[in-house]
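Methods — Computational structure assignment.
A single polypeptide chain was analysed. Its primary sequence is given first, followed by the predicted tertiary structure written as structure tokens.
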Amino acid sequence: MARAASEEDGWIGMTAQTVGKLDRIPRRRVDKFEERRAELAQAAIQTLAELGYARTSLRDIAENSAFTHGVLHYYFTDKVDLILCSVRQYKARCVTRYDQAIAEAQTGEALVDSFLERLGETLRDEADLHRLWYDIRAQAFFEAAFRADVAEIDKSLEDMIGRIVDRLAKLTGMPTPLPIPLLYAMIDGIFQQSLLKHISGDARAVEQLKSDVRLMLSKLAGNRDATG
């Protein structure tokens, strides 16, 4: 479930240079500094999503937004700092989008229907943002600066799948069929393939995603009635 923001949340995902900068700022100004970082990251994420990691810099983002290069450079050490801040904020919202479905579902079929509806919506409406996430995750193979944040974001997504599967198991009386990390990897693989099809113009990608995940869950459960 979503947890209340803590003071430590503001420090997660920052580079060592940024943390060092905050160490030299009085405590009462740190919160304002972090609030401004969050605002700038939120405003910049669409530009980042459109340009991708390789084709963007702080100057590019400034040219495609209402902020000057100087402002961005003051609040972010470099583009890695800004991109990680933006992606972390977006994914933090993503992992809570299914909590209402988990809380309200009274049957396994209702839970799966609600989960798949939200999964399809985010593929259709936020494809650029998901593309940015997969771009950053791929960069973690080559850029050590991304690895800790990518691992933490992946774990939060895995935990979200875990909450859904645990609730499904309780509603259907069926045990969780596979370890949660493996289930997450399977769903993530289906989603990534569907994303590529969607951004390539396949009009069937959203419905195919929902159909494929539903089929996977039904096969794992061994009881098609439990998942519709």
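Note: The chain has two domains: 12-85, 95-223.
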